[in-house]
Amino acid sequence: MPFFTHQFRAGIAGVSLATMVFAVAACGGGSGGNGGGSTTPADLNSANAAAAVSTGLKGAVITSGAVAMPDVTLTDTSGKPFNLATDTKGYVTMFYMGYTHCPDACPEAMAQMGAVMSSLPANISNKVKVVFVTTDPARDTPQALRTWLDQFDKNIIGLTGSAQDITGLEQTMGIPVQQEPKNADGTYGIDHLAAVFAFAAQDQKAHILYPGGFSNADIASDITTLVTKGFTG
Fold first, then answer.
1. Domains of the chain, with CATH numbers?
2. Average pLDDT over residues 105-116
3. pTM value?
């Protein structure tokens, strides 16, 4: 899975969200497909060795400061309100923003999260929520989100909202998103950050994220540590 969709790629140990924003602002637009290669686990694990020693985790440490879970209410796939801060309180939360028409990064991320969650024992998985927020509310209705997410894991929480709600959340999270020009047939792609944020239960902050290159075992190990010990970096 790529770190950024389309032409954005990076191998990281610690990562600054400000750097991510700069990278996307420099985007010239793509063809609507997510071509190119992904960062390898060896690249990430080698670069992240020092951070792994200090945190006990394998994911990429957010060096610019932990990201707080936004106090934002969206709509879940059953049409009910879902407040990100309130409804994830007390859980380790794996958070991703993407869209159902994404050709590779988003389905790869959700397939991996589904596989990871199914590999965890119930005493761990019951303390974790996986949340997918659409970056494409015009096309991703609650029903469309549910149908798409069910391919990967029926327990993944899908959220949508108004264009204003989603834009506000992207800005609050510091996640850069850019819609590409429409193709002749009206289809379009969306450049977005292709990484899963891991929010710790004890402070509801994301200290770690996972772009492409991390194995299922890496993520499962980190989730287990976050559930049993919390973030200790």
1. 14-228 (3.40.30.10)
2. 96
3. 0.80
